[in-house]
Write a structure and sequence with these properties.
- The protein has about 210 residues and is an alpha/beta fold.
- The chain has four helices and 15 strands.
- An eight-stranded mixed sheet has the order 5-6-7-4-8-11-10-9. It has a five-stranded mixed sheet with strand order 2-1-13-15-14.
- The two termini are about 30 Å apart.
- Mean pLDDT is about 95; it is low at about 205-210.
- InterPro entries: Glyas_Bleomycin-R_OHBP_Dase (IPR029068).
- This is Glyoxalase.
Length: about 210
């Protein structure tokens, strides 16, 4: 079974980006960074989602991200599915922090339970078929709306969502052109998927969570 081993973000200043991700989310080896100023405008077509145990932890991580220089796209709030908010890192990547819990059960922590790389795609069915053909195994699938693949050795699970629906959920316009400024690593690569997301063959990054 093919797996997602790593996520690399293209950033103008890797040192500054590393400083931000450490301060905001406690992430270090979980994401990779490389220097690039590839042209891009608008929505890059993906988000990195952090799932935590309770609203207090959502507030804590989002607060730390804002203090470290992030921009708020959606303030943390309750919804039908739980509680969460969205921020944009100084390098332009969009991050969502959320929990299915609606009440706190203890003090806030910086523990991240799950990390998901969510790709916004034109057609979930087409992209799911493509990825299954590359050897990834489906864990959850909801028709043309959403698909999640089994995780591997890397820190992030991979999931697919309709691009317009993802943009709406994040509070941004779905319009965007140019580079995704994202490179996905895995034992299925190298290839480029139907929506232009590039993969490389790579060894796993360390699977670890924020503390």
């Amino acid at each position: 079974m093919a797996t997602t081993a790593s996520v690399t973000l293209d950033v103008a200043d890797p040192t500054a980006a590393r400083r931000f991700y450490t301060a905001a989310f406690g992430l270090d080896t979980q994401i990779r960074l490389r220097t690039s100023e590839a042209p891009t405008t608008g929505f890059r077509g993906f988000t990195l989602a952090l799932t935590v145990s309770q609203p207090a932890t959502v507030d804590s991580l989002i607060g730390d991200a804002l203090d470290a220089g992030a921009t708020s796209l959606k303030p943390a709030a309750k919804s039908l599915w739980g509680y969460g908010g969205v921020v944009q890192a100084p390098d332009g990547a969009i991050w969502k922090v959320a929990t299915s819990a609606k009440k706190d059960t203890g003090p806030a922590t910086r523990q991240i339970d799950e990390m998901v790389l969510l790709l916004g795609v034109a057609d979930v069915t087409v992209s799911k078929r493509f990825y299954v053909g590359q050897g990834l195994a489906v864990a959850k699938s909801f028709g043309r709306v959403y698909c999640e693949f089994h995780g591997g050795a890397g820190p992030f699970k991979l999931a697919l969502y309709r691009r317009r629906a993802l943009a709406k959920d994040l509070g941004v316009s779905p319009d965007g052109t140019g580079s995704h400024r994202l490179l996905i690593g895995g034992d299925a690569g190298p290839f480029t998927d139907p929506d232009g997301f590039a993969w490389e063959a790579t060894a796993p990054a360390q699977r670890a969570h924020a503390v």
